[in-house]
Amino acid sequence: MKTITKPQKIAMLTFVLCCLIGVANLYAQKIDVKEKAKTAATNKADRKVDETIDKGLDKLEKGIGGLFKKKDKSTETAEKDKNKKTKDGEVTVKGQDEPSFSTYNKFDFVPGDKILAFDDFKQDAMGDLPAKWNSTGGAEIAKVNGSEFNWVQLTGADAFFSPQYTAKMPDNCTVDFDMIVTFNQESNWYQRFYIEILSSAKLAATSEKAYMPSNSGISFEVTPRSREIMARSYLKGETLMESAAQYAKLNTRKPIHVSIMRQQQRVKIYFDEKKVFDLPQGLALEPNYYLRFGSFVQDEGDSETTKMYVSNLRYAVGKPDMRNKLLTEGKLVTRGILFDSGSAVIQPQSAGVLKEIAAVLNENPQLKVKIVGHTDSDGDNAKNLQLSEQRAMAIKTALVNDFNVNEDRLTAEGKGETQPSDVNTTAAGKANNRRVEFIKL
Q1: Nearest CA-CA partner of 111 in 351, 279, 319
Q2: Where are the chain's structural domains?
Q3: How far is CA 132 from each of CA 120, 163, 167, 292, rounded to the nearest angstrom?
Q4: What confidence tens digit (pLDDT) does each residue in 206-228 have?
Q5: Model pTM?
Q6: Burial of 235: CB neighbours in 10 Å, binned 0-12, 13-18, 19+
Q7: Which fold has domain 322-440?
């Protein structure tokens, strides 16, 4: 583009000025002679002419200046980032929106009393099948950008994956884990994932579908493209119930915390803070049930980008009765208040436990408790003691600030790793040792 010189710019401004003055003169000639004799009217007309000229010059100068003004570098970068598309299959845990207790104000998930299994797959080698999983498809340990944990990556055209932590699913239990799902945005073929509870042990170990006549149970079908979760309940292969729900975060390739609570026949499932389904008759009366994950793509070419990642899987047993434990027995032990690794930052999915404890305290204003934090044996003894104290204080602060408990009724202390409740040689044992006690005073 040809550069406009300074003399040329002045000439252009002068030309426009002359044109505007000419227009003003024509306008003035049309004014009635009697009106022109009036000073006030004349001044008004003159002001209009001046304003018209000023506006014209301002617009012209702004337009010319815009031709030479360089785009701000940060603005240019932001525009590029805005237009940049996420690559299929690319996952990261960086840049997450930090949830808070306020977003979890309706979250009522409370994990079981005792942890049967915990797995962040740190003990497994990259690229290997997880030691405690069976698979009919591609399952291997993988890394995710920004995560300190390992993840099991599940993929396959029609594949299913069964964790083998317990012989069967207890009647009253909870399972929760972090999940990321990816899919091919350009494909129009079906790409789905499954989270299932099945009555048939044989079926759970194969690629057979949940609606086979030999099976009862429930299947949660996750479709990232449409952001839909479909729940189907089966009795001996016959569909008893079918219901759909939406969750916007399904197609973002960001971690979702999935929480499942089973109480006999009743099944609740949460995606982050949202209770997606509460099914009082979700499971038929069967003696045994088993957990299974699945992956399905209609076009095998989509298998490279259609993947499910799972980590921090926690399997716990028991139906918590916090009120009875605290008021009658005088001591409540919970492993459901979770913290960021190595810190005293409480994770928001702890809101269900904190809310129940706060309800007991607020309904019994005479009750005073001591909050005692415990850690596992990983790391330095002194640092663990300090960390347990900080975590106990963080819980006290949360109960006061977020759940309106009177501060005078709470004390806090830490015991570090000095009083283990389980072994420190297994992942499940360490998870049981990372606990908080509420002791009635």
Answers
A1: 319
A2: 6-68, 114-317, 322-440
A3: 12, 6, 12, 13
A4: 778 888 888 999 999 999 989 99
A5: 0.76
A6: middle
A7: 60s Ribosomal Protein L30; Chain: A; (3.30.1330)
